[in-house]
Write a structure and sequence with these properties.
By secondary structure, this protein is of the alpha/beta class. The chain contains ten helices and eight strands. Strands 5-4-1-6-7-8 form a six-stranded parallel beta sheet, with helices on both faces. A two-stranded antiparallel sheet has the order 2-3. The longest helix is centred in the middle third of the chain and has 17 residues. It is globular and about 50 Å long.
Length: 214
């Protein structure tokens, strides 16, 4: 491993904890279509993957139009209220300060829609840390997002992807990019180990120290 050309962060579960907003928005969307509201833990286990995948699992529906309608209800509340219900994990700002001071280019790649990713980042005044924020379209996967960034020469294969779920690590590996798993989000040690990242860290301080040691 060498010092990254760009250090790319996942958003939910890596930079910020979205649980409160995600649970409330999901149950708003579900009850809008006469589903029974779900316990927090049943919803938060799916934080990370694209929204439509999660809704399909929670509703048991394979009707694309129905899933899209439920997702639209979720995003209606999220765009008005839910993004404000995020919290930045302790130590994140200090870690970003140190990495930026060390001259390491920083970026975000998230399964959130672009506009909602920007809302979250701006609400915490974190935008100045990042060279770019890459949100998804409703149908794009994180692997496809990274593939586009590589094809457009926005990043190269010396970038490192940092995330809390397997989806972050597999997206990186499918594009020939190294990865680091973090344990303060929603992925377990077993989930992250199964994807064989270059490193797994337990805190923002440990992540900073690892990156600065390269």
């Amino acid at each position: 491993m060498e010092k990254p050309s760009t250090l790319i962060f996942d958003l939910d579960g890596t930079l910020s904890d979205p649980a409160v907003g995600v649970v409330r928005c999901m149950n708003y969307a579900l009850t809008s279509f006469d589903y029974t509201p779900l316990p927090d833990a049943e919803i938060t286990q799916y934080i990370g993957p694209p929204l439509e995948q999660t809704i399909a699992r929670l509703t048991g529906s394979d009707d694309v139009k129905h899933v899209d309608a439920v997702a639209a209800a979720y995003r209606e509340r999220y765009g008005e209220i839910g993004y404000k219900e995020n919290t930045v994990y302790p130590g994140i700002t200090e870690m970003l300060d140190d990495l930026q001071e060390a001259g390491i280019p920083l970026a975000v790649c998230t399964s959130k829609l672009q506009i909602n990713a920007e809302r979250v980042i701006d609400s915490f005044s974190l935008g100045n840390y990042f060279q770019f924020i890459c949100g998804s379209s409703a149908k794009s996967s994180k692997a496809e997002q990274l593939e586009t960034l590589v094809s457009q020469n926005t990043i190269d294969r010396k970038a490192i992807m940092v995330g809390d779920r397997a989806i972050d690590l597999t997206a990186a590996h499918s594009n020939g990019i190294s990865s680091v798993g973090v344990l303060w989000g929603y992925g377990s040690m077993g989930e992250l180990k199964s994807e064989q990242p270059e490193e797994i860290v337990e805190s923002p301080v440990a992540l900073r120290d690892y990156i600065l040691s390269l």
